[in-house]
Amino acid sequence: MKLYQDERALNPRRVRIFAAEKGIEFSVENIDIFKSDHKTAGFTALNPMQRVPVLELDDGSTISESTAICRYFEALKPEPALMGGDPVEQGRVEMWHRRIELNLLEAITQCFRHGHPMMAELENPQIKDWSVLNQGRAAAMLEFLNGDMADRRFIAGDSFSIADIACLCAVDFLKAARLELTEDHGNLRRWHEEVSARPSAAA
Fold it and tell me: Which of 2, 52, 165, 185 has its CA 20 to 30 A from that of 32?
């Protein structure tokens, strides 16, 4: 298997962490989106959406979208279960994963894409007000998460899951939204310290 990625991007990191937790290995080919590598004919043939990551399987077929790739890995190697064990746990993990994706990860991404000068060519036009609005959305989600996690070890419950992976990548990218965890985020800071110490966090 081969993963096509821009190693600086959030979504490929989510896939790398997930795979590291599973002990799944693959080769990597780096795509520089700032050099428009994702718009070449070769890469477009792999993913017409022109986005990373893309996983190329041994038979030459491809899977794109980070969650779809992770779901393939989960089916390929079910243990450790990162998308939930029984049906109730699966539902809760999916619920929290979607909440993190839509209300934190996406908000931080929009802050960066519409607020940082280096993204001007990729996000044309940049809408500064949209960046500011999403900064508020991200801050509100951090406050909500911090309060809600008072009695939970991990994002979706007692077990590390894909929801923790998404949240770790989001929190590590907070500076792009001109935000940070503060002393008021005690529960999140405790969680972040624990998940950051996992070997997979360095993937």
Answer: 165
Rounded to two decimals, the pTM is 0.94
Domain count, the chain: 2
Report pLDDT for 127.
Answer: 93
Q: Are residues 108 and 143 located together in one domain of the fold? A: yes
- What is the sign of the dihedral through the CA atoms of 44, 47, 48 and 50? negative
* Structure token digits, residue 149: 């996690």
Q: Is residue 123 pLDDT above 90, yes or no?
A: no
Residues of the domain holding 56: 2-76
Computed over every residue of the chain, the mean pLDDT equals 95
Tokens of 158: 């007692």
Give first-to-last CA distance, the chain, whole Å: 17
pLDDT at 202 over 90: yes
Residue 102: inside a domain = yes
Q: Are residues 70 and 149 in the same domain?
A: no
